[in-house]
Amino acid sequence: TEPNSGEECPYLHYSVWRTTYLQKDTLVALVSVAIVNFIAVFPTILLNTLVILAVARRQRLRTKSNTLLACLASTDLLTGLVLQPIAIAVDVNRILGVGQFCVLEKLGQVALSATGFSSSSHLILISIDRYIAIKHPLRYQEIVTGRRVKRAVVLVWAITVCFITQDFVSTFILSDSGKSYSDYHSVIEVILFVIISIYTAVIVYSNFYMFFETRRQKKRLRTEQLPNEEAKRIKKDRKAANTLLFVVGALTLAYFPSIITALVTFIGVKVELRFELVLWSWLSTFYSLNSLFNPIIYCWRHSKLR
Asked: Among 199, 248, 254, 279, which residue's CB has the most CB atoms within a 10 Å radius?
């Protein structure tokens, strides 16, 4: 028996990858996903670093909206620096069948959850910022201040750190206690479900409102003779709102395969564990690619940033 063939990882909620799972079909899939991650990791790091540097070093780009975009780019940068290298290491270990996998695969899960949570939280902040800019244009500067933006970003990162901390504590302290860990994990799943539901509702509502409001304002530009300053503001807000819609659309496409897979699993379709583990590697990769698409969208839609 090989050293890791019988190793169990109770805190991963499924049996760890075994060398017996490595067959011709799974080998091809693992090599493919590792290559995709390896190709994507360098441009992901480069482009998101450039976005952050552009906003940090150019005074004219340091608006509150661009600051939030740079913060979102920082979470995408972490995806390239942390999540994708760990994913590559996990896939390479599975291909080679060397070493112990429990801690490494748990790190991959934590990195995926942390970057996903942080990215979604920053997207919430950007959605709220654009919602206020379109709904209350005259009071925007009063409502969205630099101090409030900083506090919101700090709060998001603080919650993310707490989320990571409890995950590690529950994994390496409570996992040996059996039922108590299972109960704790069930509570955390309920809390996360509530948070995800709130996030989804806020993003969907704010973006639907912005979509219909920008269409209404576009008709106003065509049919009414507006002051030059107001017309410029409407065009600027509409362009920013459309950029956000593209970002949300890219995120939706990144999560769509995971949603479909979760629904298929929920209705009881059985998949061999070796295929399931490879499938989730691909789903994680689809999510990671979103961190590459975001800076491309920024530069495509934002001429000054470009």
From this structure: 254
Residues 6+ apart with CB under 8 A from 49: 77
| Tens-place pLDDT, residues 243-302 | 878 888 887 787 777 777 767 666 666 667 777 778 888 888 888 998 999 999 988 888
Look up the pTM and report it. Answer: 0.83
- Kindly tell me the number of DSSP H helices and DSSP E strands found in the chain: 9, 0
Element (H, E) at 166: helix 146-169
Q: How far apart are CA 187 and CA 262, in angstroms?
A: 19
Q: Which distant-in-sequence residues (6+ apart) come within 8 Å of 264 by Cβ? A: none
Q: CA 281 from chain center: how many Å?
A: 15
Q: How far apart are CA 14 and CA 137, in angstroms?
A: 51
Give the C-alpha separation, 125 to 70, whole Å.
12
| Calpha distance 125→64 (Å, rounded) | 11
Reduced to 3 states (helix: H, G, I; strand: E, B; else coil), residue 5 is coil
Kindly report, residue by residue over 6-54, the tens digit of the pLDDT.
445 655 655 567 777 778 888 888 899 999 999 999 999 999 999 999 9
Write the CB contacts of 190 (distance below 8 Å, at least 6 apart in sequence).
none
Residue 121 has, within 13 A of its CA and on its CB side, a CA count of: 23
Task: Please give the full DSSP string across 110-155, using - where no structure is assigned.
Answer: HHHHHHHHHHHHHHHHHHHHHHHHHH-TTTHHHHS-HHHHHHHHHH
> Which token pair is 128?
């709220």
Q: What angle do CA 206, 207, 213 make, to 5 degrees?
A: 90
